TrEMBL record:
One matching Pfam family: adh_short
UniProt entry tagged with the keyword Nucleotide-binding: no
Keywords, sorted A to Z: Membrane, Oxidoreductase, Transmembrane, Transmembrane helix
Top-level taxon in the UniProt lineage: Eukaryota
Identification of the protein by name: LANO_0H03752g1_1
Family the UniProt entry places it in: Belongs to the short-chain dehydrogenases/reductases (SDR) family.
Lineage: Eukaryota, Fungi, Dikarya, Ascomycota, Saccharomycotina
Organism whose genome encodes this protein: Lachancea nothofagi CBS 11611
Amino acid sequence: MPVNILATALIEGTDQIPYWNEIRKYAPYVAGALAIKVWSRGTTNKWQRKLNGKVYIVTGATTQGMGTAVALEMAQQGAQLVILVRRIDEWTTEWLEDLRVKSNNELIFLEQCDLSDLYQVRKFATKWLDNKPARRLDGVVAMAGDLEPAWKSVRKTSADGLELQIATNFAGTFHLLDLLKPSFKAQPPDRDVRIIVTTCMLQALGEVKIDDPLWKDAQYNRPLKFFGSSKLQLSLCMLELQRRLLTKDEKDERSGKNVTVALVQPGIMRSTSLRRLLSNGSVLALIFIYTTLLYPLLWLLTKSGNRGAQSVLYALMSPELEEVNWKDEKVKYVVNCSMSKFSRKEFDDTELQTKLYDTTTSKILELERSMAIKRNMGKKKTEKK
């Protein structure tokens, strides 16, 4: 068909082509829209890496978007996945079975671990570490996140009394990776271990509270600031985590360079977070504003979950993060399947990062102790009854 149209245009002239005037009128707009879509969908991960025999802990995999796309690709490449979920119920069980069927991989398991609950995080990490010899761990892919409606002043709290976004996006993920440090260090020096943490461009709206990193005393008047700050503080702590993992072990003088930390900014996606942000948590707004009015524009300008997953897969599979190819010992920042640079000045302040890491560790331990006392008092009251 295109050959016939081209032949007609060359031999008989464009006037003989049906609907030529309409084609000429609208073709530039169609071409422009296609060019924008090609640009907005981002780059595809070009690296392929077989993951047979490798073991990964994954969070945020049940999103039906980026997280599920990453988990599916990892499973298809043969990885054994330990997926942390808030609760194990009928839906998550069916999701797991579907993932096993699609990937033809039975080595996918669910573990209950609500990242907003520090007690559950410690229980999982302790269970993981309580094994001799040390369990194999080829990496952690941390994609879990929570974004609350930006224009509602109702503060949601975690089991520990923390603001939910701070608890999930920062405290829980930080606590998990901090507790798993012995497991990372215990891996053989020839094993390529990767810690991949997703972040968000909204971290540009955040700020760092050195003396109150859990934001317990902060006024809840700008929910989006809590989200941005949770992402910013986690990113800064990851820079310090990399330095601590690189510190040589007193026993065997390992370099620690086989363990790399990468921060990934997947871009703007048509995700659960974006839907909640635009609809402000309202079902009616989701139907009429997001689905009806804005979706054509969002389809044009934003990525799908599968396209957002490409940068995470790049960080997982790129040989640039292998010890032999390291050019420096800094945390790698992956944007659009390529290495990028941090823009905020806090990323150059190692003293700030160290203090934030230490203070966060101290505050979490203090909070855990107080919650343990409350749980014990609750048990005693129950026993008396």
